[in-house]
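Hi everyone,

Forwarding the result from last night's run.
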Amino acid sequence: MPTSGMTGFGRVEGAQGDWSWAAEARSVNGRNLDVRFRGPPGFDGLERAAREGAQARFQRGQVTVGLQGKRAEGQVQVRINLDQVERYLEATAPLVAAGRAAPPSLDGLLALRGVIEAAEPDADPEAQARLEQAMAASVNQALDALKAARDAEGAALGGVLSGLTEKIAQLTAQAGVLAEEQPAVLKARFERRMRELIGDPAGLEERIVQEAAAMAVKVDVREELDRLIGHVESARDLLASDGPVGRRLDFLTQEFMREANTLCSKSALANLTAVGLELKAVIEQLREQVQNVE
């Protein structure tokens, strides 16, 4: 399975009988899988279908599924609530009888709250079940489209991540070559400084060798370089593996940065420090891209 991203969008439209609808699924980055659903009233069962569909396809990301449904206007039934009309007439009768108010007109009565009601026809349970099943199918199709979009993003990300990983490998190799120069450079630097300060007394050469050896131990970066090489191999394996790897890659970038920081702190050469800083910059680019990986 190729690397998958966490952002994308899918939309599917459908219709059945006097109903039409549009299902949309979109997602953004997230540490865990968070599924949210919005649908029309009376179709609460679709939320379960959306959640189960998302959980079957994704491991991470904030996934929002929306369903907008509309029924043909011709199917809406309009009726006059005669009971409500009678209640209004009874309430105003004493005022009319006392001459304090004119008899209510038909227009006035129809404008009162609750007199005119709009109701949809009684739903057939079997027809309702078929309709909900068709809507659920559209939701799953929208999730399929979202997955395809995330996979396409992941395919593009895979190349970027592989390129950055290889750049880290190249910089690590370059740092290894430069690190081999540190002991000799430190010895020459220390020797020059000592001769400037105290001349050339007896036993100076032995002292220089001892001090240079001690300094070389302090700036030895072989362990850091070995761990960086190991991390590169781990990154390559993850990028070639099946299934979600975002969390593991995120942790690996932290380990990359830890070793790069130590490398820079131990560096005694300007050119090795420059390579270490470039290494940190590439690792940060890798970390930013990994945030988009499922």
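Residues 125-179 form the longest helix (55 residues).

Cheers,
N.
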